[in-house]
Amino acid sequence: MLINLLRRCFAIAILLLIAIGLTTQESTAMLRQHHDAPGVLRYHSQVSIKDKQEYNWQVLLFKKINPGVKQELNLRIVGFPGIFEFSHPHSLEIITASGKLLNASDVYATSSPAANVGEYSLTDVLPKLTKIESLKLNLPLLGTKKNILEIPKTVVTEWQLLVTEVD
Questions:
Q1: Neighbours of 89 (CB within 10 A)
Q2: Which residues contact 157 (CB under 8 A, 6 or more apart)?
Q3: How far apart are CA 47 and CA 61, in angstroms?
Q4: Least confident residue range of 9-23, 118-132, 145-159
Q5: Which SS3 state, helix, strand or coil, does residue 127 take?
Q6: 14-18, 76-80, 81-85, 101-105: least confidently modelled range
Q7: pLDDT of 6
Q8: Nearest in space to 139 (alpha carbons), one of 72, 81, 75
């Protein structure tokens, strides 16, 4: 009887752990710091996000700190090679949860390191986000493929920390 009770408690504990694991968000970012050159620091937030078709995208927001130079915030988005190609030079449309539409200019307007890589300037965009909310990125891709990445509020919170807390 005691063994049956222990088995039931164990089964319930396993089911609870599985349920908690299924309800957690899969995209969590983390701030990292790198030395690009002597005196030049780069901080970034990197996350992997799945689109509606279940393709993974690497989303990397980074900030370079170089004494005497204006700080820039760039968002690099990398899709699966051979499947997605960015259309250059086209801006990135950013839609807030409250419906505000913002545009980020294409950093790779003249040349890109690879067809599946896009990079956009968020230096003037992120300060316009007056509240922290989820975002949708309307990716400017070649062809008829339309793809929207949904950026969760937790990632946007980290992006705001990169803007406000890292100098």
A1: 13
A2: 132
A3: 9
A4: 9-23
A5: helix
A6: 14-18
A7: 59
A8: 75
Q: Which residues contact 108 (CB under 8 A, 6 or more apart)?
A: 86, 88, 89, 117, 118, 119
Nearest to 37 by CA among 13, 15, 17, 66: 66
| Vertex 43: Cα angle to 152 and 38 (nearest 5) | 170
Of 79, 82, 83, the residue nearest 137 (C-alpha): 79
CA 70 – CA 68 distance, rounded (Å):
7
Residue type, 152: P
105 and 88 in contact (C-beta within 8 Å)? no
β-pair type (92-96, 147-151): unpaired
Centre a 10 Å sphere on the Cβ of residue 43 and count the other Cβ atoms it contains: 20
Place of tokens 């807030």: 96
- pLDDT digit string, tens, across residues 89-101: 999 999 999 999 9
Length, in residues, of the chain:
167
Q: Provide the pairing of β-strand 40-50 with 147-151.
A: unpaired
